[in-house]
Amino acid sequence: MKVKVDADTCTGCGLCTDSCPDVFVLDGEVAKVKVDPVPTSAGECAQQAIQDCPVNAITEG
Ligand code: SF4
User: What atom in ligand 1 is closest to the CA of residue 26?
Assistant: First the structure.
């Protein structure tokens, strides 16, 4: 799978980088995806991050 973060929507809350640090990293006030594609081992937490993002800034694809 691939995920992306909409930098205009992300608030930099840090939820995804805390819950799935293998995939997301905070770059200043915006989360970035650091692996593309997401390794299978991190797929579950990436999916969870998509669901948990309070502003729906993470999308798959
Ligand atoms: S959970 Fe959403 S708003 Fe928070 S840092 Fe991650 S992408 Fe940004």
Answer: 5
- pLDDT tens sequence across 1-44: 999 999 999 999 999 999 999 999 999 999 999 999 999 999 99
| Domains identified in the chain and CATH numbers | 3-60 (3.30.70.20)
Q: What is the pTM of this model?
A: 0.95
CA of 51 to the centre of ligand 1 (A): 11
Find, among 14, 23, 11, 13, the residue nearest to 47 by Cα.
Answer: 23
